[in-house]
Amino acid sequence: MMVIKKKIVHIIQSLDNGGCENMLLRTLPLVGKFEHIIITLSRRGDLARRFEDKGITVIAINQKSLFDVNAYIRLIKTTRSINPSLIITYLFHADFVGRMVLQPTLKTRVIPFLRTTYNHKKYWQARLFEKLTKRYVLQYLANSESVKDFYVKQIGVDKDKIIVIPNGIDVDYYNNIPKDLSLKRKLGIGDRDIVLICVANLHINKGHRFLLEAFENLYKNHRNIKLLLIGDGTEKENLLKQIKSYKSQNSILFLGKRNDAPKLLKISDIFVLPTLFEGMSNAIMEAMACGLSVATSDIKENKELLGNTGGYYFQTNNSVAISSTIETILVSSEEAHKIALKGKEIISKKYDIKFISSILSKFFEKETRYTQYF
């Protein structure tokens, strides 16, 4: 007798190479009791084929703008034809569409999976939207206690409405990635070079400006350091202009979007993320799993992940603090190695992908008992 799986629709802007998208790629194939369909509001994205290779259907709506009415009609028709038991939305645009378009039209339960705090003045519209529409949401998911705390205190959401299910990571996968010395040579990195790496889209809230200032300062005393910047985004041109007069500019490699970020982590020594806000950083988790020394901003989201013993912290928007922290790692290599191992232990014990996937599966089982939004 063939078992018909309940369908869960996941809605996201696109499947480009980002933290949330990679989390879904790692997790959904392990939640096998359901049929997962991903609907992208705009383009399919670079990771779409990899989802399909894992048996997950990807449908692109090709929305041109927020006011593309025809796209909303396509979305409603597509989702109705799937007849899902549950709809999960990820990030602002999908949250908006799920809450304001699909939920009232289809009467299907829509659950926003909160991924970040939007804790920057630039994102005031997102915070306002959350405040104005929170009454329409019966249940939230959040990827960290810090995100939950933000929504409770800053948005005014009832704490009982938010269930925390953190990101998971396959530590064994990162353990088995070899150090590719040929990759170092291709990038012009010498055997004795110290490699700093930052994996983050080039957006203002990631704080790259301060990292570049710190790197220029470090370069004065450490001519054998390299900085790898993995990611792309709206700040790229500003950052390139920033380093035009830097003595360190030839040691800063803008590598853009990469599909081999884990291999690049493996040839690096120190992971740096000067982010202003997060949810639960997949990039930090990957660096921890690779056994790198992690230096990051002292925001609550990062402290929840690394704890008191798994990494190094510096103040946000402070290039002097960043360079000082990295200098500490460089001159205390033995202590830094111990802290990196502790970070790897934290990831292994608390965020194993199989354990996290089982929690998510149980949540879906409970929620799909109800097919209507009340």
From TrEMBL:
UniProt-listed InterPro entries: Glyco_trans_1 (IPR001296), Glyco_trans_4-like_N (IPR028098)
GO molecular function: glycosyltransferase activity
UniProt entry keywords in alphabetical sequence: Transferase
Keyword Transferase belongs to the record: yes
Keyword Lipoprotein tagged: no
Domain Glycosyltransferase subfamily 4-like N-terminal: 34-172
PANTHER family recorded: GLYCOSYLTRANSFERASE
Stretches assigned to the Glycosyl transferase family domain: 184-344
Taxonomic placement: Bacteria, Katanobacteria
Organism: candidate division WWE3 bacterium GW2011_GWC2_41_23
Record-linked Pfam families: Glyco_transf_4, Glycos_transf_1
Protein name: Glycosyl transferase
